[in-house]
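hi! just following up on the protien thing from before. the input was this:
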Amino acid sequence: MKNKKTLVLGATTKPDRYAFKAITMLVEKGHSVLAIGQNQGEVAGIKIYTKQIPLANIDTVTLYLNPLRQRDYYNYIIETKPKRVIFNPGTENPQFYQLLESNGIKVEVACTLVLLATNQY
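and the predicted 3d structure came back as:
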């Protein structure tokens, strides 16, 4: 399996949240992870940043932000030039899909946890 450098947007230290579970599972599966959330903290050894950090060579951005909160990250994600953006359940955003696709970024409406669990990540 190839290591896919992944940015988790909407990261949290709350263990019952899917973003927390995604970070944990990504690390367990051997992926490099960067995380940005509202509050600082750490999950599975990954520091959660509260500001947009410089990024390079990101394969995947996985979203855990509702469409309204995603707006603050449109340019950031597009300028990062990831290969794909995963819209997890509850983050669906057709307006953003169009922006991403027009910039050559693949859109995937899926669940990161399911993709990881079924080796489709």
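Residues 93 and 101 are 12 Å apart (CA to CA).
The longest helix spans residues 18-28.
cheers
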